[in-house]
Input
Amino acid sequence: MVQFSHLTKAYKKHKVVDDFSLTVDVPIFGFLGQNGAGKTTIMKMVVGLLRPSAGTILLDGAPSGSEASKRRMGYMPETPYFYEHMTGLEFVRFCDELDGSHGRNRTEHYEALLKRVGIYDARKDEVRTYSKGMRQRLGFAQALVNDPEYLFLDEPLDGLDPIGRREMKEVMRELKKEGRKIFLNTHILYDVEEVCDEVGVIHEGKLLYAGSVKAFCAGKPLEERFMEMVGAHTKRSS
Amino acid sequence: MRNIFIIAKNTLKLEIRDKILYGIIVFGLLYVLFELFLADLVLKELPMVKSFGLTGIYFFSAIIALFLGTTSFFKDVDRKVVYFILSKPVSRAQFLLGKFFGLCAVLLLTTAILAVAYLGLIAYEHGGFDGLGLLAICMQYFEMALFIAFALFVSTFSSSLLSIVYTSAVFFLGHIVSSLIEDAKAIGLTGVKFALVETLYYIFPNLEKFNVRDLAVHNVATPFVSFGLAFAYAAVYIIFLLAVAVGIFNKKEI
Output
């Protein structure tokens, strides 16, 4: 279970995340919001890359950024950058060594992971030769390397072609069956509708809605409901 | 310690794959060979040969240290590769220290390549092992390690280009601070002006402590105490710089 309690992140006087409180305990949860809504900032605070200005995040009781919480999670940043002169296999191994909780040099495990995300054939190629989609897949693989209970994926389907998107969504469903919990940041409504059990709608750093996709839509298309909610909030705040 | 070692090992592996580094090493080797050849051809004097060789190694080690120190850490943070690393159970201090030791290992390797070329040529042309030259190279290595620590420290709060400017400036000042204070005393500088020179003397590292090339060139042995003091001076300075760098990096929003 992930608990956000009065989470705030401010840069000088500008609040990027504003008094965000939420408890999530579903297999796949999607943060939905426009660009700049605060989704990435929240995710970076969860994984310990940013420190909250106020509030707390607990991952099964462990504070965000602590070693205990990092050992239970995998993180894939938005538009991942890699060491260009490393091969895909070397990069996954490097990430696993940093985690260090599963012994050393699990080559079979790394190869199975790369097969799962569809870049096994390119495992011995340097990352600089990878396409954007292959980089996304490698980012996904490294997030899975420590067999995490929680996965935090920031725009994981960006840059993938339609087949790639379908494959990655299938992997997410398999991970759900394995009992892992996935947090997904996206601004692509169709993906949310397809894979998420619950969504959180974020706008200007505030949580506008959290709950099931079905209840959120209330019989209307997701896009229409999203526009209505964000539009109403914008009118109120202006 | 384990994470520091893994990051250091990875840094070493990646840097030795960098073509720019190869370019600098090749130029360094060509310089050492060319200068030795030229000095030997024209002057036929061992001190001149040694002087050219040791200066060449020093010059190219400084370029490599500047290149590594100002780009490696900054690139990882700027290109956000650090997101992968710091989302694992790795602290920022471990990351920074891993980078430092990795870069020092790269520098050790490149200095060793240049030193082998130098010692080999001295042995080939003059039939002896230049132990004092090797000691001078070791002292130079302490200086370069300090140089890398300073470049990393600057990289925690400035861009790569500014790091090059700041680190080069400190390199220059580090070599003149000791003569600067002597000159200030000699011309009878007092009051605020002398205090300013004195402040510079205490703030900037005195890099001349590591310069025993002239002694090595003229076959004068460096006292062991000087060697030990230079090592201790470098170690204390490096620990101080890295501690401040970790403090800044811990507060940095990435």
Notes: Chain A touches chain B through 26 residues (CB under 8 Å).
